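Quick check before the chapter quiz. The format below is the same one you will see on the exam, so make sure you can read both the input and the output lines.
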Amino acid sequence: MTLKPLADRVIIKQVEAEETTKAGIILTSAAQEKPQVFEVIEVGPGGVIDGNEVKMVVKKGDRIITGKYSGTEVKIDGVELTIVRQSDILAVVE
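Here is the expected output.
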C-alpha cells in the first residue's frame, strides 16, 4: 500500500536511534534516546490552503526536525510513519 499526501501534508519516518555512543559504548534499546530527526518519505502538492498559496519547500529524502507532539502517526505495512503539515516542520537538517 502507498500513501499520497494531500495539500500541504508531508509523510515522514523517524530516523533510527544511535546504538553506540561517540565513545563506543553500546546502548540497550531502553537506554537509546528517541531521535527528533525524521526523513521525508513523500510530499503533497501544496496549493491554496485557507485562501493562502502554499509552496512546498521540503522534498523527498530531506532530513527534518518537527515538533515533538505534532502530526498523526500511522502504521502501513508494518512501518510506522507520521503525517504532518509543512508548517509543523521546524528545520531541515543539512
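If your answer matched, good. The chain has a mean pLDDT of 87.
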